[in-house]
Amino acid sequence: MTLIRRTFIACAVGASLLASGLASAQDIKPHLIRFGYGLNEQSNQGRATKVLAEEVAKLSGGKMKLRAIGAAALGSDIQMQQALIGGAQEMMVGSTATLVGITKEMALWDTPFLFNNAQEADAVLDGPLGDRVRAKLEEKGLVGLVYWENGFRNLTNSKHAVAKLEDMNGIKLRVMQNNVFLDSFKTLGANAIPLPFSELFSALETKAVDGQENPYNTILSSKFYEIQKYLTVTNHVYSPWIVLASKKWWDSLSKDERAVLMAAAKTSRDFERKDTRAEAAKALDELKTKGMQVTVLAPTEAARMRDKLTRVNAGIAANVGMDLWRDTQAELARLRTKK
Ligand code: TK8
Fold it and tell me: What is the pLDDT of residues 279-326, one digit of tens each?
């Protein structure tokens, strides 16, 4: 048998073993993967992490073990990113927004009202533009595998109902550690204070800050309803999460090991989006049941906020680069006329 033929057979066997989840004959060694995330185990982030861990075990024939460590026990998003870059931790999932200090192109996803719906987000994030932004991480020591859904963000606070722009005045509002969010909420008149998510509950509880903004799922899973009375439906931005690996570690893996991780990441992504959307559809009612007072903005007020918020767009475009900005706008226009 020629070498080429033997290689071909070995590859074919390898592929079918991988497909059946029995990867034992492949170039897969034992690995313990420390995977950190910020939310609770009983959150959409926790549930999807569990699916990821199961998939990694299945596809690697039990050789690769993903140890999930939630509730920011390994640190905030930013601390974990640094641990990945240094090689002290293997993997994590967190907000793209907290990566902007490392990779400026990530700020593209912070553009207020960029996506009109989840389908647009999926198409752009899973397409060439999402790949382009993801690839930028590599020069900084990170590998971005897939985007998960955090979701459309909404505003909560403990002071008073926010029904119009002026109601934002003087609200001490926690924002993610990211200049776009800082500028966006300053523009709306809030006193915006950047804080890691891991410090948010206690900051709200002690009234160090009055409010915050996050998707319904997180307001529910992090029990913000216990300490935040007022919720305003703003849907001001679609927030992605991204599954990251340490590049230092990734580069030491075999092709097969990387294939296992990538396949598992994709399965977890598909599960996560479905799960998150199903939960989000019920979460607002649940938050009302828990006692939150929900304000839906009158169209004129929503338009005033939107107008103010989109003033940060020019700055984002300059920061992420005009080519990336224009290509994104063109892709969105294409998606919108396709229907
Ligand atoms: C969790 C965070 C969270 C984000 C935030 O670590 O910080 O508000 O929405 O999901 O990444």
Answer: 999 999 999 999 999 999 999 999 999 999 999 999 999 999 999 999
Cβ distance 279 to 304 under 8 Å? no
- Residue 219 Cβ inside 6 Å of ligand 1? The answer reads no
Distance CA 120, CA 336 (A): 9
Q: What angle do CA 37, 43, 46 make, to 5 degrees?
A: 45
Q: What is the residue with the minimal CA distance to atom 5 of ligand 1?
A: 197
Rounded to two decimals, what is the model's pTM? Answer: 0.93
82-96: buried (b, 16+ CB within 10 Å) or exposed (e) per residue? ebbbeeebbbbbbbb
**pLDDT tens-digit series, residues 220-278:** 999 999 999 999 999 999 999 999 999 999 999 999 999 999 999 999 999 999 999 99
Does the C-beta of 89 come closer than 6 Å to ligand 1?
Answer: no
94 CB less than 6 Å from ligand 1? yes
Which residue's CA is the closest to the ligand 1 atom numbered 7?
197
Is any atom of ligand 1 closer than 6 Å to the C-beta of 176? yes
Beta-sheet strands, E only, within 138-278: 142-152, 154-157, 172-175, 191-194, 211-214, 230-233, 238-246
In the reported structure, the alpha carbon of residue 94 is separated from the centroid of ligand 1 by a whole-number distance in angstroms of: 6
Domains and CATH numbers, the chain: 30-338 (3.40.190.170)
